[in-house]
Amino acid sequence: MGLTFSKSVRFGAVRFNFSGAGIGMSVGIPGLRIGTGPRGAYISGGVGGFRYRRSLGAVPSRPTNPRRPAAYLQGEGAPAPEYVEASPTVVSTKEHDTLSVLELTDSNSDGLLQSMNEQRRKTLLWPFVAGALFLLYFALANATKSWPGLGHLALAFAFSAVVVWVSWRDKMRKVTVLFFEPDTTVTEHFDALSRALSQAASMRKLKAVDSTSRYADSKYSAGASEGLKFSQTSLAMGQGPGIVANVDVPVIKTGRTTLAFYPDRILAFQGSSVGGIAYDSLVAVEEHARFIEHESVPSDAQVVDHTWQFVNRNGGPDRRFKNNKQLPICAYSKLMLSTRSGLDIRLLGSRARGFEPLVVALSEMG
Predict the structure, then answer these.
(1) C-alpha distances in Å from residue 27, one per residue of 9, 41, 294
(2) Is residue 318 part of a domain?
(3) 158 or 5, which is more confident?
(4) What's the pTM?
(5) CA dihedral 124, 127, 132, 134 (to 10 degrees)
(6) What is the pLDDT of residue 64?
(7) pLDDT at 25 over 70
(8) Do residue 132 and residue 23 come from a single domain?
(9) What is the mean pLDDT of residues 129-157?
(10) 139 found inside a domain
(11) Are 308 and 328 found together in one domain?
(12) Do residues 180 and 262 make contact, with C-beta atoms less than 8 angstroms apart?
């Protein structure tokens, strides 16, 4: 047993405590004291043989679990996985899908994009019409007091019909109609693109990657060196916002941007803005990924390994943490869509090589 030292010196209600760990001070009355020392502030009290002591904001002597993670991702062949949620150890973050679609200008469709943006920015008239008719209805209320109840109901119905008609006209004023007559070769490639997107859409788990963060300490993220922040995404056949065309097209929706893949070009939408992307300027890349899944494993995912929520340097579980769960590592895939102008959209899917047909089809469209 090592040698220890402690001594107390009292000055009225204040007591100074000296020990090998440092100097502490406390103040209070018999049975209740508040103090501070090498281990932080505390409050203590007691009566008879019962004693109570509680730390006030002290650092715990045993590590506690940080915020519960949602999932992890590890590049194939790399020893360090990527962790999903934000962490206190983040040292840098790269945001994705931040480019304004107005910076995406296809030289072959400048006139179309200008017309579409002008249409989408047209002022809606129905709120003004509704407000004016509402005021008119109450202005006529005194003049129509002698009317039967059905008369008032008919007047209200007529005013409502006018508002609905104006609202429909507003919508039609913002709609762009596109008509396509592609040749045989383009039709074959476009049909292949549609089938490829439908295959990718069948993956049980699909997420858009909003940002990638790098961590200083991977101990608290299953050995992760990087983390991903997700938002919802969807892949489906349909139309771009405010577009009516004679063919349904592949549509990818992320948290901020919607991409609609038409036979001759890609249209990108954000709110009331629209931009154009030529197929030969789009770079589509698929990467294989080892995804550390914290939620339930999707039915189409392949579990290839396991890790721990808190790991030692040798890859084993860190015994200092309670409820240290073993987590499955799944073979997932990542899709990255980019252009030289700055488009940066990234998706994560739960099936290995799940985006490969889509990448091939996009390259053929180019």
Answers:
(1) 12, 12, 48
(2) yes
(3) 158
(4) 0.67
(5) 160
(6) 40
(7) no
(8) no
(9) 74
(10) yes
(11) yes
(12) yes
365 touches 359 (CB < 8 A): no
Distances (CA, A) of 171 to 15, 102, 157, 167: 78, 22, 21, 6
pLDDT above 70 (res 144): no
> What pLDDT, on the 0 to 100 scale, is given for residue 299?
93
Structural domains counted in the chain: 3
pLDDT value, residue 27: 64
Let me know whether 241 and 169 are in one domain.
no
Q: By residue range, what is the domain housing residue 21?
A: 6-56
Element (H, E) at 185: helix 184-201
Cα-to-chain-centroid distance, residue 83: 14
Within a domain: 61: no
Using CA atoms, how far residue 319 sits from 15, 285, 306, in Å, is 39, 40, 17
Whether 26 and 136 share a structural domain: no
Smallest Cα–Cα separation from 227: which of 215, 236, 217? 215
Report yes or no on 65 lying in a domain.
Answer: no
pLDDT digits (tens, 9 = 90+) for 291-344: 888 889 999 999 988 888 888 877 788 788 788 888 888 889 999 999 988 899
Residue 82 has pLDDT above 60, yes or no: no
Q: Are residues 215 and 327 in the same domain?
A: yes
**Beta sheet of 50-56, edge-to-edge order:** 6-11, 14-19, 22-29, 32-37, 40-47, 50-56
Residues 43, 134, single domain; the answer is: no
CB-based contacts of 303, cutoff 8 Å, min separation 6: 297, 328, 329, 330
pLDDT at position 177 is: 85
Q: Rounded to an integer, what distance in angstroms lies between the CA atom of residue 345 and that of residue 254?
A: 8
Whole-angstrom distance, CA of residue 279 vs CA of residue 262: 10
